[in-house]
Amino acid sequence: MEMGTNVTVNDAMTSSVITINPENSVADAAFIMAQNEVGCLIVKSNGEPEGIITESDIINKVVAKDIMASTITVDEIMTKNLIKIDPGRELNEAARFMSKMNIRRLAVVKDGILRGILTAKDIMAVSPELTEILVENARMENQIDYNNNESPVPGVCETCGNFMDYLDEIDGKFVCEECKEELEGDLT
């Protein structure tokens, strides 16, 4: 699906990015995420963006292993190869790139300076027509996740059309929890 206008990453990104130092504890990171109601923090060292820490990192690398979050640093669990995009790139290109790389967030960097962050939710808010790309990515992820009994994926509910952080597959459709309950109620 191609867009008629040239909407750029800059048009959709969130410019106020919450950052953290790699030496901070994971407990600090979790606290900052909770306080700011965000799902990730960009890790900066010496003013340069060098990684990202997400809720998933904390759950999978700390909580699931029963490690005390105050005893481990952000540097120990963050994703160090920060995937970046230039703010001048077209939004449809960013959506395709995110789908290809199987990621939900891109650091927006120009000349080594963090300018913002672009999330799947940002893309859908600005250009709902790109939803098809992201939903297809969710389908592919969901096939893999459910085959491995992993958690649901984010995307657009195919019943109500709302973007949700977690979708479940019911009868070949990806749906939010509320629509899932309604559909399961209809099945009984």
Major sheet description: 3 strands, mixed
- Measured by DSSP, the beta-strand proportion falls in 15-25%
Give me the CATH fold name of the largest domain: CBS-domain
Strand arrangement in the largest pleated sheet = 1-2-3
* Separate helix tally: 8
What's the structural domain tally?
A: 2
Question: CATH first level of the largest domain: which class?
Answer: Alpha Beta
Content-based structural category: alpha/beta
Low-confidence stretches: 144-151
Helix content: 25-40%
Count of DSSP strands = 9
Helix-strand pattern: HEHEEHHEHEEHHEEEH
* Rg value: 17 Å
Alpha-carbon distance between the termini? 37 Å
Q: What can you tell me about this protein's structure?
A:
This protein is α/β, with parallel strands linked by helices. It has 2 domains: 9-120, CBS-domain (Roll), CATH 3.10.580.10; 130-187, no CATH class. It has 8 helices and 9 strands. It has helices at 9-12, 26-36, 55-63, 74-77, 91-101, 120-126, 131-147, 177-187, and strands at 19-20, 40-45, 48-54, 84-85, 105-110, 113-119, 153-156, 163-170, 173-175. The chain has a 3-stranded mixed beta sheet. The chain has a 3-stranded mixed beta sheet with strand order 4-5-6. Strands 7-8-9 form a 3-stranded antiparallel beta sheet. Helix 5 (91-101) packs parallel to helix 7 (131-147).
